[in-house]
Amino acid sequence: MIDRREVVRAGTLGALGAGLVGAQASPAAASPAGFLEGVGPREWKRLADALSSRSTLYRPNDSHYPPLALPFNHRFAGTHPAGIVACGSTEDARTSVRWARSVGLPAVPRSGLGHNYAGYSTTTGLLLNMARMKTIRVTPRSGARSRTYGSMKVTHGAGTVTVGAGVTNGDLHPLLEDQGIFVPTGRCPTVGVAGLVLGGGIGFSDKMFGLTCDRLVSTTVVLADGRVVEAGRDSHSDLFWGCRGGAGNNFGVNTSFTFQYEQFQGDVGFYQLRWSLDSVLPVLAAAQRIALDGLDDKRFHLRVGIGTHGRARDQIRANANVNAIGQYYGPLDELREILAPLLAIGTAEERARNRASVREVTPGQASVLLSATTPVEQFATKSAVLTSRTLLSERQVGAAAEQLLDWPGSSNEDGAGFAMFALGGEINQVPPDATAFVHRNAVFIFAAETSWTDYDPPRVEAANLHWLREFYQSIFAGTPPKQSYQNFPDPTLKDWRRAYYGANYDRLVRVKRKYDPTGFFSYPQGIGT
Ligand SMILES: Cc1cc2nc3c(=O)[nH]c(=O)nc-3n(C[C@H](O)[C@H](O)[C@H](O)COP(=O)(O)OP(=O)(O)OC[C@H]3O[C@@H](n4cnc5c(N)ncnc54)[C@H](O)[C@@H]3O)c2cc1C
Q: Among the three residues 129, 163, 182, which one is the final residue of a domain in this structure?
């Protein structure tokens, strides 16, 4: 069966050569004009011949090129790589990097489907599509200790799992479903583990088990000079530090990652709550209070947000809602007690529905229920790190709700709004300079988002981007947030160095100078040399 998204995708692929409505060339594509002129057919053949049978070079005339060139966010579909290596091995990644350097082309890795919000996994140079590197190797460890949380027995540090750079969050799901093996990742099944871990990695178990980057034991990196190094606690520890929060495409091409995993047995508490926008003030007040009171309670996970979708004003009003979702590693009656202030809000119908949503599920079911993805097409975000001093006031929440009703609309069913992911627990036990991920005193990561489709007219894109700025501005008027999340990059952010990396930025520059002194891996918000 072909659904609407497939039709849209097929239409988009067809449109790729002709240029999409509203699609723009990515700023990551910025490179010396005419640099391609020197790369002739003989050079491309040299690359194709040098690759092993595990990898393939695609040029724009190849039939496989369009789907591989297209980034997840079609906003940046106007940037076409000169060539794409579908990379199947570390050795071929190394060959590709060396070749790109030798002919003066930039090389940019993409894992997953290319989810970067700012289009930083697009290039007019050589795109290294890592999706073929799908190996997953599990190495159990004996003697790991277990602990019970409600109906769940967790064996901590039960072993390691080594994944290739092309593995996505969703690829790890069968391990959880079939064997109870769990690595904390993000919400979206198609996000690549590579981009996720390199920028941090928040999800619905991070307070309990740490960010994805906190679980990293080692990573294999192809450097700009073609060397392949293994970065871990005892080797290239400075690079290892940078690969835990320093964001992708800054130091090299990471071809594999080894994580410590947890072994699950039993069930976890789950909830999913929803109200009309009328309840926005009490819900946000209660949710923020719960998150603050439970900052050190690593078992409780929460995402709260507001959203709407539709094209016409009445649809946007009717769909406007407040929502919360999460899970709890503990007994169900404790979860109900934590949620009590939220469960008391709303109409009788909302309260009954919300109460009924609180239940125990298997970790595999929880992972499916908690997963969500933005429909392919076009979207943008602006994020903020909220601490106990900068939680949203009633005025800010009220302003956000008002602006939400003024959203200009689009055909994208994902619509617009904001989401707040509660942090704390294990995440905040790690000192801010222990890894490159600096945001270790956060209560929430906040993300304002808007989305539209390929077939919306250009004025819809312009109106959505304008609205996003106004929405964010109305919430943070006068008090612009100091930090934002590097995995939700905002190309319009001026002081992104401090916002993404804070006091860690200077150290990241030192790592960059050591491992990529010529700045071969670069993009507009890349670490400088
Ligand atoms: C729908 C959606 C849901 C999301 N949900 C979450 C979430 O729940 N939690 C969360 O923390 N984040 C989330 N994100 C953000 C996500 O973590 C980042 O967009 C992440 O960078 C995506 O990684 P990727 O490999 O899929 O994307 P890509 O676009 O391929 O890569 C992102 C960046 O990393 C670089 N890169 C990619 N592969 C490599 C590699 N092998 N070696 C070196 N550099 C590389 C790219 O060049 C690019 O600069 C979400 C994003 C979207 C669009």
A: 129
